[in-house]
Amino acid sequence: MPDLSIIIVNYKTPRLIIDCLQSVYQHTNGITFEVIVVDNQSGDDSQAQVQAVFPQVRWYDMGYNAGFARANNLGIRQATGRTVLLLNSDTLLIDNLLERCVRVLDQQPDVAAVGAHQLGRDRQLRPNLYTTFGQMRRAFYIIPPTQAAENWLKRRLPDPSFPDPAQVEWISGAFLMTRPDTIARAGGLDESFFMYGEDVEWGYRLGKQGRLLLLPDSAFIHLEYGSSTDHQQHVVTHINRFKPQVQVSQLLWVRKQYGPGAYLVLILHYITLIPIIFLGKMAINLRQRQPLLADLDNQRAFAQQVGIFLQFFWPTLLNKPGFYKV
């Protein structure tokens, strides 16, 4: 039995996986591990490319684009290690992080899962990454960009305080290590999620099994948006902060964890905002002596996003099992 099973989900990123695995093999020692890649119907030669360099990789095909949760669950079912790591293809190790994480799980049975801090491609700490449920929930509310408004929202959706500063409420699925017996108790990733939000919801259930730790002085490189040509996030604005799939998934998480009331408050918040942001922008146009309907693309994009949310309204409100893919 290997010490660790590394599970990587692939969707048309063979070069990223090769780079990731080169960093794994370069920096990892003191433990045995296996690598499992689950392919989401890439429709290319990903398997041939990866196994030409790493023939020992175990490869599984989902047969369709199953997203993050379902593909990882298949990998978990195939894993034979005494610990399991979910690892994004667009990550790079810089030291013997995997052995350190396995050792924590071995030595601290009260710890349910461990993760590490994320660095950008410039090897600088990526700022403002969420580690609490309150941080995530506050990001969904579009409020005036003032300190007073932010303080008001934080009082209503506060963050917890833990004796151990390394303890968090959830760990990013880009790098999350746990044990098979912990997964057996908590359950696998919720397969209603296509992408995004599933690691937040899973963190809630994993947290019931023990502490979740973001290890101090431990980090990995996360080449987020690494498969894009310019390595840039999509342009965001104050009212359009997330891609539709991100927010549909996160709304599903809110419904599952906090109930229908919390979900309905958010939906009502968004619907109410539509006339407010249109009228506000038109008032600015008049004040600046611009055409009344000038530069409303941002507002139209928000209204379109809300329309997408509403397509999933009843299944989400009723918490119906399904596949919440935009």
Automatic annotation (TrEMBL):
Keywords from the named record? Membrane, Transferase, Transmembrane, Transmembrane helix
Which residues belong to any copy of the Glycosyltransferase 2-like domain?
5-132
**Protein name (record):** Glycosyltransferase family 2 protein
This chain's source organism reads Spirosoma sordidisoli
Which GO MF terms does the UniProt record name?
Answer: transferase activity
Q: Which SUPFAM superfamilies match?
A: Nucleotide-diphospho-sugar transferases (SSF53448)
Which InterPro entries does the record cross-reference, listed alphabetically? Glyco_trans_2-like, Nucleotide-diphossugar_trans
Transmembrane intervals: 261-280
Phylogenetic classification of the source organism: Bacteria, Pseudomonadati, Bacteroidota, Cytophagia, Cytophagales
